Amino acid sequence: MQEKQGMETIQIGTTGLRPTRIALGTWAIGGWMWGGTDKEQAIATILSALERGINIIDTAPVYGLGEAECIVGEALRRHGRRDEVLIATKVGLAWDDTGRVVRDCRPQSIRAELESSLQRLGVETIDLYQVHWPDPLVPIEETARTLAGLYEEGRIRAIGVSNYSVAQLEAFAAVAPLHSLQPPYNLFERAIEHDILPWCREHKLAVLAYGALCRGLLSGKVTAQRKYAGDDLRNTDPKFQAGRLEQYLAAVARLDALAKERYGKNVLALAIRFILDREPNSIALWGARRPDQLDALADVAGWHLDQEALAIIDTILAEEIHDPVGPEFMAPGVRG
After folding, report:
1. What is the pLDDT of residues 156-196, one digit of tens each?
2. Going from the N-terminus, what domains does the chain have, and what CATH number goes with each?
3. 3-state secondary structure the chain
4. pLDDT tier at 22, thresholds 50, 70, 90
5. Residue 312 and residue 17: Cα distance in Å, rounded?
6. What is the CB neighbour count within 10 angstroms for residue 129?
7. Antiparallel, parallel or unpaired: β 159-162 and 180-182
8. pTM for the whole thing?
9. Per-residue model confidence as pLDDT tens digits over 307-321
10. pLDDT at 4 over 60
């Protein structure tokens, strides 16, 4: 797998996988909870990401209830060079005919989901297979054993989990190889810094940070007047509601000023650089729906945040955000 100049990479454990430190996130591309999708535009975005040097695409069956994986599969076919692309997808969320999504990590469900993902993606192997959410109705150890089996069979090349606590990580890693964690992590959602991130560092897990731009808040393009269509999750995201939104936008304005004055960059580049510099073994998931939303990639490379800037960032957040809230609203339901 060739690396393009200027694109940082990491190694995922001993798997031999070497992803770029920016991954293309495809939740929005799937349309579900993002107000719909434009398939051709989505394919063009994926191909643009690959042309710009990104070599890992993160997706999931639940994104668009199968649509995102199908779009990724079509983009791969058009790209034509499977060996140059790492595919990270997920397992453990199921949906019914009404579109209701619930957690399901039963062994038979995991194996059935894998077959469906392989078919939609048009591939024979998943490079990184991640448990999307822990299922409280299935012991962590049982989920781990199921993925360990798929790993030993060569159906998947690396094992990851998402949205796991330290206790759940320990239970999983006691039974199966564990190579990565995908947690919510960005300038505004930093709970993992207390215990989860240190655990991952100690155990040499790659960290795929989702929500790197906090649903667009850290892009610098959100305004208090902006409206969101259809089922867009920002209609229910507590950060986007009156009262809190103004606090976060005030912080964004000051972070943007800091980035420009100190580095000649903008808040988007600052937000991505923050993730990469806080954890050397991290990957930032960059969600995009149009090729032009990837234009800022060049602004992330070739510089680093210094300790003084990190301290200023902490001060800005403390002074502007008086009513912080996490990403808990995104948690899916449990089978009833």
Report:
1. 999 999 999 999 999 999 999 999 999 999 999 999 999 99
2. 22-216+273-303 (3.20.20.100)
3. CCCCCCCCECCCCCCCCCCECEEEECHHHHCCCCCCCCHHHHHHHHHHHHHCCCCEEECCCCCCCCHHHHHHHHHHHHHCCHHHCEEEEEECEEECCCCCEEECCCHHHHHHHHHHHHHHHCCCCECEEEECCCCCCCCHHHHHHHHHHHHHCCCECCEEEECCCHHHHHHHHCCCCCCEEECECECCECHHHCCHHHHHHHCCCEEEEECCCCCCHHHCCCCCCCCCCCCCHHHCCHHHCCCHHHHHHHHHHHHHHHHHHHHCCCHHHHHHHHHHHHCCCEEEEEECCCHHHHHHHHHCCCCCCCHHHHHHHHHHHHHHCCCCCCCHHHCCEECC
4. very high
5. 36
6. 27
7. parallel
8. 0.94
9. 999 999 999 999 999
10. no
pLDDT greater than 70 at residue 30? no
Let me know: does 57 contact 23? Beta carbons within 8 Å: yes
**Residues near 10 by beta carbon (within 8 Å), at least 6 away in sequence:** 18, 19, 21, 206, 280, 281, 282, 283
> 129 an active-site residue?
no
CB-count exposure of residue 39 (10 Å: 0-12, 13-18, 19+):
middle
Residues 59/93, Cβ–Cβ less than 8 Å: no
CB 55 within 8 A of CB 94: no
Let me know the angle formed at the C-alpha of 213 by 282 and 248, rounded to the nearest 5 degrees. Answer: 130
* Token pair listed for 166: 């330290």
Tracing tokens 């448990």 back to the chain, one arrives at: 131
User: Percent of the chain, pLDDT > 70?
Assistant: 96
| Confidence band for 325, pLDDT divided at 50, 70 and 90 | very high
* Residue 185 token pair: 């992590």
Catalytic residue among 63, 151, 210, 248: 63
279-312 pLDDT per residue, tens = 999 999 999 999 999 999 999 999 999 999 999 9
The partner residues of 162 in beta bridges, in order of sequence, read 182
Q: Quick one: pLDDT at residue 3?
A: 46
